[in-house]
Structures are given as C-alpha cells and as structure tokens.
UniProtKB/TrEMBL annotation:
Start and end residues of each FAD-binding domain: 3-328
Name of the protein in its database record: Bifunctional salicylyl-CoA 5-hydroxylase/oxidoreductase
Database matches in Gene3D superfamilies: 3.30.9.20, Aldolase class I, FAD/NAD(P)-binding domain
Pfam families: FAD_binding_3, Oxidored_FMN
SUPFAM superfamilies membership: FAD/NAD(P)-binding domain (SSF51905), FMN-linked oxidoreductases (SSF51395)
Domain NADH:flavin oxidoreductase/NADH oxidase N-terminal residue range list: 408-734
Length: 772
C-alpha cells in the first residue's frame, strides 16, 4: 500500500515504523511541518503498561526509549505551607523532542520516507495514496475538511495554562498550589531528563483576567510564574520553547471527541489518529499514550485482516471499534481529573485540610481507589486513615489496624452513627393500607443486623392520595404509627442501627401499578385524583394531574407536618424530606414540571418556595436534636431541566432553612431523560454540594464495594454513603465488605458470631489461593 501520515508526531511516526517493520513492501511517507529533528514542547509521561505494549510492538525503539527514560515513584504536594509525599506510583518521563528523534531515526532505518518543513493543506495533495493518516493535531486541517463526516465535538475548557520548563531536576511528580489575591495557581512539575523538568502552570479564567496575564508577553508571564512559585523553583529560572507563539502563550485546553474516525475521499481512505481524533487532558498525562496506542491498534488490525488495499475499510472499522472503548475510558478519567483542577480553588483548596486535599488530588481521576493506594503506599495510606479516624473521634493505639473511613463514626446533631453506611430507602410496594407488615419487619430487620449504621424504610406517604401505588407505606393514621413504633423497637433490639424515615408525596407519579405489573403504568381501576405543580402527565397516557392551588398546598403541608409528628412520637431518629425523582415537591423544583406563572414558578426562589415551606413546617415540629436531610434530584438529565448548579442553589436554601444533609440523587423527573451511568456516577453531585455549599452530603448510586465508599468518604466527596441494590442482594453488605478488606473488629449480632470467624477464614484462604 501507499501510506501517507500527515503529521510527524508520535502517532504518525510510530504507525509509519510499525507498518514498515511488519510489511516492508509498503511505501510510507511521514510529512511534518517542522524542521528535521526539531520539535516543540518539553516532557511527556508514560506508564509501565505503555512501555510493555511498545516492547511488543517494536523492541528496538522501545529499548532506546527506555534507556532515555527517567523513572520516579513519588508524588509530592506543596500546599498551605506543607509538603506531603507518597510513593509507589511508577511514572516514566522523556523529553518530547528526544522521543520524536528516536522515532524519526527508527523510521529512517526501516525505510520510511520523512518529509520536513511541508505544510499539508489537504489530503487531495496525495491522490495516489491508498491510506492517508491524519495525525495533524487537535486543529487538524484534514478533519476540518470532512467535518460533516467526522462529526467533531470540540469543547474549549475554561482554565488557562502555560507549558514551560526549568533546568531544575525534581525527584518526584510535584504539584504546587499557591494562592494569590485573585485566586489559586497550580503547577504540574515532572523531570524528563537528567537536568530538565516540565513546568505547567494552570489557573482559572477569572484569575488569569484579574492578573492581566492576557496583556503580558511570554517573558512577563514567565516572570509572573517565577514569582508565584519561587519557593519550589529555589532560584531556578522558567524557560519556554514556544517563542513561535504570539502573545503570552497561555492556552485553553480543547476537549475533542469525534463521531467517526475514517472516511473515503473518492480516491483514498482517510483515518484520524492521536489528537486529530481525540484529546485527553494533561492532568493524567495520557495524550501521547493514546496516540501510540492508536498506532499499535491500527497496525494490529492490518495484521489481522491483511496488509492490502481491499481490506482497508474493514481494518478502519475494526480499529475504530476497538480504540473507541479505550479512548472513552481514558477520556472519562481525564475529564474527572481536568474538572478537579478547574474547580480546585474554591471547591477543595479553600475548604479541605492538607491531608484530605492530598487524598482528593491523588484520586481525582477516579481510576485510583482506596485499596489501590494501599497497594502503592501502605504506610502513607495508613497514616491518612489514622488522621481521618482521629478526626472522627477514634483513638487508635499504636500497632492496631486503623478502621477505614466507612467504619468511622459520624455525629449529626444529637445522633451518633456507628459508621458511615446507610441502607437507602428502597420501595417494596408490599403494604396494605399503608401499614408496615411482617414482610417489612423481616426485610428491614435483616438489614438492621447487617452492620449499616442507619436503616431507612421506603418513601413513606403522608396521605392516601400521596402514594405511588396501592402498595406504598404510609403514615397518615395512628395504626400506621403503631407499626412504625414496632419497627423502631425491633431495630434497636438487634444491633446498633438507627432508624430513618423518608416522607414524600407522589404527585403526578401517583396512582400507578406496582412495578412487576408495569412500571409507571396507571392503575386500571381504583385510581385517585392527582395533584402537581403544573398540569402535566408523567407519561402521555398517565392521568392528568390538577395544578395545585393554595388550599391544596395548605393541606399537603399539614399532612407532612402530621406525619412528622407521628414519626417523632414513634421514636424514629432521622427524617428525610423527599424532593427528588419527579414526585410532588420535586415537580415544583424542576422547570420541566413547573410551568407556573405565579409566585411558585419561574425563578429558583419561586420554584423552591413551597418545598421550603413544607420543610420549615416539618423542622419546627421535628425534635431539634434529631437530624433532618433532603433528597434532591441534582440533575434532570435532559435539556431544559435542572443541572448540578441548580441543585447547589436549592441545597443552599435548604441549608439556610435548617437542613443537616443533602441526599444527592438524580433523574426520574422527566421520562425522556438520558442519564450518563457509570461507577459512582452521582457522587460528583454530592462532592459539589458538600464542598461549595458547605453542607454535609449523602452519596448514592452505583456504590457497590467498600473500596468505593472509602474513596468517596476519604476524599471528602460526601459524609455518608447510601447503599441500595447491594443491600437488597446482601442484607449484611457492611459486615461482609468489612471482612473482605480484612477488618475483623466489627460487631456482628451475637447470634451470628459462630459464622463470623468461618467467613473471615474462608475469605483469607481464597485471597491466599488467588495470590499463588
């Protein structure tokens, strides 16, 4: 084949040498706009896994690259007058120029033609090429020519950064955070040869503008950064090799995703690689890795399907299918890390103490978890766990195993929880006339013995017409209150767990069948009239609710207050108001479901007016020493709905009204929603509200392991974790997860003690066997 790589960066050079090495008959040209053996940029970072892949792909260049690498294991944080360090992270750095020079020499040795100092305007300049590889960077001209086919989605991120270097060799990947009168600046620093380090300085657009950095030339910007980071530089100067750029050289990162990666131009197949196809923020240092992995996979697909013209389309389709998955994974991690740095000042640096700030930074991408940190640096993590435990009121003796964050106690008002795990409210739809029955006693009693500190029953309705289905629990009469007293006494009699109640009103989502007869489907008979913020049915064929008037509001408020009083009298220790998932109070908060033009619609204040009225009336009769939380849908997952920033506004209002925590869920407000699911996918909402609004939060959603919970709590992303489906599958989830991570000093029900030792022994045997 005749192959032309437009762009002489890592992607184009590596593909050229791999294809020539595997099939010397190919005629391959790599075209580069720069001079021979010249490039811009400082150092790049690899992982050990990347080097393993390169050794397999081309041992010769891998050996030379590896000889030139600088290895280091440590990460150091400079923050608020402290220096903290952890080890075991396994970074490899090399100068970008050195890397490209090695690949250029390898290409020449294999017979790849290198063309320098040529600007390629169009792929049509090479009509005889069978395959044109567009690896001409994030501003790819080739991609722009076929934008309709490639469907590029480019987002310019808000932070500013400047890519510098220094002739000081740092022995750790160093992060330095410094606060100025206008905001925080952070430096990402890593060595890439014996005497030189990359020094990237980043800040917010607000700080950038306030300091007038856009008005400075490069030298003035360098002097500004030298002053801010003077202590870390210790007399060393900052350098730039981007004199070719006009102005100050401060840039915005461009996040790129393409809908398609290849096209046929009528004569040649054109495929995107590297930054022309996708970008990953430098916060996790994976841009070069992605480019090299692209080259390896494309070459591998030619090996599988044949090095000939006839199979090119099949190869390109397979290449994209395989790479899209890995790229999405890396981009998700890079997005998490990027967004962490974009909000680091006001969300974390201003609020977190140095040890927790360091933990938050280390886990910013959500690829590194609590137990992964233990594998990397046990000593550091156990020191952090000791710090966290002491702040939770635990005095740990020397030599004792420190409890992980999820097993530390937590106090809210006058209530002390034995740990930070709660059984989330989960609808069972198995009540008769709203009454707790033997099923609920067995169901909740089992979970009360499972180790969680707080056990919630399902959403409990404040009136008969507040139910979702005829099978919902209620608390509108004395008979129901008596059964709640029975439940409280049972839970208190079998362990340390406390009892919580979530009070709610279904609103427009009421009068439906139980889920196993049709989720959200309206009752065929026995339905009751519905009310909501506005007259909008949940499904097109659902019952039309009536728009609430003031008399409706008075009645509903009084129903919530009456149920609150019954819950308090029954001995319930925690009260949560349900303002999420499209139910009645949620329907006021979301602009999707609130179309009112009176004082209860429009602005945030108006939409929150009635939910806040209900909350304040409940808080007034709920005992002052008992906690009260609010469940919010923090994202409606559809255009025109609430987003996390809106949830933060509502959270601040509930905080001012006396809420102790916000239970951060999302969705279920609008039927056409499109949630983005994933591990811990709702935790960012809890993180934002906790650290920007300044109120404790509960994280929910796709938390299924102790490792997940410990990572969330240790990083300060939430104060409690609500576990739902895992508790359905395993009532003793907390006890079992504690045993799985080696924590044996956990209280089991005395009746089950004979099983505890055997369970722990079996886990230890299984772990030993898997390690062999």
């Amino acid at each position: 084949m005749r192959i032309v790589c437009i762009g002489g960066g890592p992607a184009g050079l590596y593909l050229g040498l791999l294809m020539k090495r595997r099939h010397p008959e190919h005629v391959i040209t790599v075209v580069e706009r720069n001079k021979p053996y010249d490039t811009f940029g400082w150092g790049v970072v690899f992982s050990d896994a990347m080097m393993s892949a390169m050794r397999l792909a081309d041992p010769e260049s891998a050996a030379e690259i590896e000889d030139a690498f600088n290895h280091w294991d440590d990460i150091e944080l400079v923050f608020k007058g402290t220096r903290q360090r952890t080890t075991g992270h396994g970074f490899i750095g090399i100068g970008r120029k050195h890397l490209l020079n090695i690949l250029q020499r390898r290409c020449e040795a294999l017979g790849v033609e290198l063309v320098f100092e040529r600007e390629v305007e169009s792929d049509l300049e090479y009509p005889d090429a069978d395959l044109i590889v567009a690896c001409d960077g994030v501003n790819s001209r080739i991609r722009a020519r076929y934008a309709e086919q490639f469907q590029p989605d480019m987002v310019i991120r808000p932070n500013r950064f400047i890519w510098l270097g220094t002739k000081k060799a740092f022995d750790a990947f160093t992060f330095d955070f410094q606060k100025t009168e206008h905001g925080w600046f952070q430096a990402h620093i890593y060595k890439f040869d014996a005497e030189t380090s990359t020094f990237i300085v980043e800040t917010t657009e607000e700080a950038y503008n306030a300091h007038g950095l856009g008005e400075l030339d490069q030298q003035a910007s360098i002097e500004f950064c030298e002053k801010i980071f003077a202590e870390t530089l210790d007399g060393a100067k900052l350098l730039t090799n981007a004199r070719h750029l006009r102005g100050s050289a401060w840039l915005n990162f461009s996040r790129l995703i393409c809908g398609k990666w290849s096209v046929f131009n009528g004569k040649s197949h054109v495929v995107l690689m590297g930054d022309a196809a996708h970008t990953a923020h430098f916060a996790i240092g994976s841009g070069t890795k992605l480019a090299l992995d692209d080259a390896i996979e494309l070459a591998n697909q030619f090996d599988r399907h044949g090095h000939g013209r006839a199979g090119i389309e099949t190869v390109l389709d397979a290449y994209e299918e395989v790479r899209r998955v890995d790229v999405a994974r890396i981009q998700n991690a890079a997005r998490n890390a990027m967004e962490w740095f974009e909000v680091v000042g006001h969300r974390y640096a201003d609020t977190l103490e140095p040890p927790q700030f360091f933990y938050s930074m280390l886990t910013r991408s959500q690829r590194i978890s609590h137990e992964n940190l233990r594998l990397r640096d046990r000593s550091w993590l156990e020191g952090f766990e000791r710090w966290f435990a002491e702040r939770s009121g635990i005095a740990v003796k020397d030599g004792e195993r420190v409890p992980p964050p999820m097993l530390t106690p937590h106090r809210v008002r006058g209530l002390s929880l034995a740990n930070r795990i709660m059984v989330s409210p989960m609808a069972m739809y198995s009540a008769q006339d709203g009454l707790i029955d033997d099923f609920h006693i067995a169901h909740l009693g089992a979970r009360a013995m499972g180790g969680a500190a707080l056990v919630f029953a399902e959403m409990t309705c404040v009136s008969p017409d507040a139910r979702i289905t005829p099978g919902c629990l209620g608390l509108w009469n004395d008979a129901q209150a008596a059964q709640w007293r029975r439940l409280v006494e049972l839970v208190h009699g079998v362990g340390h767990a406390k009892v919580g109640i979530q009070l709610g009103h279904a609103g427009r989502k009421g009068a439906t069948r139980v889920p196993w007869e049709g989720i959200d489907q309206p009752l065929e008979s026995g339905e009751w009239p519905l009310i909501s913020a506005s007259a909008l049915p949940y499904l097109p064929h659902s019952q039309m609710p009536r728009t609430m008037d003031r008399s409706d509001m008075d009645r509903v408020r009084d129903d919530f207050v009456a149920a609150t009083g019954r819950a308090a009298a029954a001995g319930v220790e925690w009260l949560e108001l349900h303002c999420a998932h499209g139910y009645l109070l949620s329907s006021f908060l979301s602009p999707l479901t609130n179309r009112r033009t009176d004082e209860y619609g429009g602005s945030h204040e108006n939409r929150a007016r009635f939910p806040l009225e209900v909350f304040k009336a409940m808080r007034a009769v709920w005992p002052s020493d008992r906690p009260m939380s609010v469940r919010l849908s923090c994202h409606d997952w559809t255009d025109g709905g609430n987003i996390p920033a809106d949830a933060a506004v509502f959270a601040a209002m509930f905080k001012e009204a006396g809420a102790d925590l916000i239970d951060c869920s999302s969705g279920q407000v609008w039927k056409d929603e499109r949630p983005i699911y994933g591990r811990l996918f709702q935790t960012p909402f809890a993180d934002l509200i906790r650290n920007e609004v300044g109120i404790e939060t509960i994280a929910v959603g796709a938390i299924s392991e102790a490792d997940h919970a410990n990572s969330i709590l240790a990083a300060g992303r939430a104060d409690l974790c609500a576990i739902a489906r895992p508790h359905l599958a395993d009532p003793a989830w907390t006890l079992h997860e504690a045993a799985r991570i080696g924590i044996t000093k956990v209280e089991w029900p005395k009746q089950y003690l004979s099983a505890k030792g055997q369970y722990e022994t079996n886990l230890a045997r299984a772990a030993a066997a898997s390690a062999q």
